[in-house]
Design goal:
alpha/beta; 6-stranded mixed β-sheet; 15 helices; 12 strands; about 40% helix
């Protein structure tokens, strides 16, 4: 039986997840984090602080990742009910990170004492610094899972523009500082809360971007959403049905060059030459490329997602989740292979151990996907240079751009048909934060939504709503000048965490 503080921690964590899309109740998240800081401050021991932080995380990640269960509805090797257990088991692990953050903050208050025995700015700064570090670790350890860092709650507000200067993880530290200001105000300490509120208001007004005027002379981009999900993917008519639907919504060539972009993995035929003939059972790749190229004008290009076969010593070793450009003559450009694969989704870790237990990856197929070499920039003649972040890759702050060859825009093909109603909107919010961080527009194409054109300040210039078929066409947005984050990356997060700790120590020393 949970005692009262532990039960409050669990409930506060659960409610804190409502600050993310689709609800966007970000004030609730701030209040819940303030409750967590209160519970941590009053914890009698380090173990108690860790446990309160862990239960907060269990509640937070259980609700926030509820969409994962839906992915189990589209495969027949494991029962769909297993998806509910997967959500909870993942939450039990992810909760370790807020637990460590609160444990570190609690220890700080005991190691660096002030004159008074009550919560103060030093404690809040220590909590913010610890949160930055642990959230960064969540995004990097064991391949990383940085879904919904706390900074994402600001995406509906101008405060999100701070990410261009801080990055996502340091923006999460700002979130803890804002919650800490609420907590201190509840303790009748008003100077720090008033200063925090003033700084956030100034930042909000100063960084609030106006909507840019469209430059109709620029090349256009057309994003296609066929609204065809995972149902029937194993049927023989699926591949031609999808290709026909993509063709229907790709529009007609015009006077302005068009970059047509299709969602992740929607070309269900092999389109590369050079494989053994036995693998071309469905269609000749020259016919497939000709079908695609026939949709284009001479200055148009299309970016498509499909599968590449990867051989080792003459045998099929795995599959690539890949993107190519195709021109009007049906010629392929350079290929990008997804580098950051989804564990248990696109490959089964420790396959020799887990497969005999009846576990399988969620994505159908007999071969695991194999990772590509990492961020790359593709030349798209007539449109500039494109970075590519396939689906899940877009959530990895600071890991999606080839720093030696900065692109002009990012292409984010995704398949969110697996992700229920909460997953797609959360995925879109994180893509918008990447645009702000890097100062790059993002072209996001998904089979069932939400597809979008995102400008370099994270604004939605056009969308195709979820569960609708359609297309959006607009001038290709321009890149912004390189941001501070695009130059320094996640070193900014570590510097912000260090600054929080140094300021916390200084504040407490002065308060003695």
């Amino acid at each position: 039986m949970l005692n009262r503080p532990l039960l409050i921690a669990l409930i506060a964590g659960f409610l804190s997840a409502t600050g993310f899309a689709p609800l966007d109740w970000w004030p609730v998240t701030l209040i819940c984090l303030a409750v967590l800081l209160h519970l941590t401050w009053h914890a009698p021991t380090t173990k108690s602080a860790l446990l309160r932080g862990w239960l907060f995380g269990v509640g937070h990640f259980t609700l926030g990742n509820n969409w994962i269960q839906h992915a189990f509805d589209f495969q027949d090797k494991m029962p769909p009910v297993l998806g509910y257990f997967a959500v909870v088991l993942l939450a039990l692990y992810l909760a370790v990170y807020p637990a460590v953050a609160m444990g570190l903050a609690w220890r700080f208050t005991r190691l660096v004492k002030a004159r008074w025995d009550e919560p103060d700015l030093g404690f809040v700064l220590a909590a913010a610094g610890a949160w930055i570090v642990t959230e960064y670790l969540r995004g990097t350890l064991f391949t990383g899972y940085p879904w919904n860092p706390m900074g994402v709650i600001w995406v509906p507000t101008p405060i999100a523009q701070l990410a261009a200067f801080t990055g996502t993880y340091a923006l999460s530290g700002v979130t803890l500082l804002a919650a800490g200001a609420l907590y201190l105000a509840s303790q009748h300490q008003y100077r720090a809360p008033l200063a925090t509120a003033a700084l956030l208001l100034v930042a909000g007004f100063a960084l609030n971007p106006g909507r840019p005027a469209e430059d109709m002379s620029r090349p256009h981009v057309r994003i296609v959403q066929p609204n065809i999900g995972q149902v029937g993917v194993d049927q023989p008519d699926y591949a031609p049905r999808v290709l026909n639907k993509l063709a229907d919504w790709s529009g007609q060539p015009g006077a302005v060059p068009r970059l047509v972009v299709w969602p992740e993995g929607m070309v269900n035929y092999l389109i590369e030459d050079g494989y053994p003939k036995a693998y071309y059972r469905d269609a000749d790749p020259r016919w497939v490329r000709g079908r695609i190229g026939g949709l284009l004008g001479p200055r148009d290009r299309v970016m498509v997602g499909g599968n590449a076969l990867i051989f080792s010593e003459g045998k099929l070793a795995g599959v690539g989740n890949s993107v190519w450009t195709v021109d009007s003559a049906g010629m392929l450009g350079k290929r990008y292979d997804k580098a950051h694969l989804v564990p248990y989704g696109e490959y089964l870790p420790m396959r020799t151990l887990l497969a005999p237990l009846g576990l399988a990856r969620v994505v159908m197929g007999d071969f695991d996907f194999l990772p590509g070499p990492g961020p790359q920039t593709l030349d798209v003649p007539g449109f500039g240079k494109s970075g590519v972040a396939i689906c899940y890759e877009i959530i990895f702050s600071g890991q999606i751009i080839d720093q030696r060859n900065r692109p002009d825009f990012l292409f984010n093909p995704s398949n969110d048909a697996w992700f229920g109603s909460w997953g797609p909107v959360q995925h879109l919010a994180q893509a918008r934060l990447r645009a702000i961080e890097e100062g790059l527009p993002i072209l996001r194409a998904t089979p069932t939504g939400i597809s979008a054109i995102i400008d370099a300040r994270g604004r939605l210039l056009g969308t195709v709503p979820a569960e609708q078929e359609g297309a959006i066409e607009a001038p290709l947005p321009r890149a912004a000048p390189p941001t501070l984050f695009s130059r320094l990356g996640n070193w900014l997060a570590l510097l912000a965490a260090l600054a929080c700790v140094v300021l916390a120590i200084a504040f407490r020393r002065l308060a003695r």
